[in-house]
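re: the backbone from monday

yeah here it is again, tokenized this time
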């Protein structure tokens, strides 16, 4: 690969890694979304996002206290 391609790939990989960790934590090993209706699915996804954010905040708070 050229230097420009390597640099572009490096930039993309950092972004992908951050996003993939979030989705991996929300899915938790292959749970499927099994709801009837879009409204219930949206609520379930919203709850998963909320729980992930709450876990992330507590982790960041613990890291800041440890420093």
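seq for it, each position gets an aa:
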């Amino acid at each position: 690969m050229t230097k420009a391609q390597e640099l572009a790939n490096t930039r993309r990989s950092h972004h992908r890694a951050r996003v993939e960790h979030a989705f991996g934590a929300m899915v938790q090993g292959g749970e499927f979304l099994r709801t009837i209706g879009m409204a219930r699915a949206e609520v379930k996804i919203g709850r998963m996002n909320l729980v992930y954010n709450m876990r992330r905040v507590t982790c960041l708070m613990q890291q800041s206290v440890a420093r």
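The radius of gyration is 17 Å. The chain has two helices and no strands.
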